[in-house]
Amino acid sequence: MSLLGAIQTGARGLSVASAGIDVTTQNVTGASTPGYTRRTLRTEQLSPVEQRGLFVGQGANPSAVARSADRLLGVRLIDATGAQSSSTTLAENLRVAESYLNSSNSTGIAEALDQIFDALGTATTDPSDASLRRGVVHAAEIFAATTSRIATGFAETIDAIDEQIGSSLEEVNATLAEVAALNARIGSQGATLGPADLLDRRDQLILDLAGAVGATAELKADGQAVVYLGGHAIVSAGDWRELGTAEDADGNATILVAMDDGALDATNVVGGRLGGLVEARGEMEGWIEDLDAFAFAIANAFNAQHALGFDQSGAPGADVFATTATASGAAAGLAVSSALADDPSLLAFAGASTAYGGDGVNLDALLELEDDTTIFASGNARSALSAITADVGATVAAAQGNEEAQAALVGDLEQLRESTAGVDTDEEATHLLEFQSAYRASARVISAADELLRALLAIGG
Question: What is the mean pLDDT of the chain?
Answer without folding.
Answer: 91
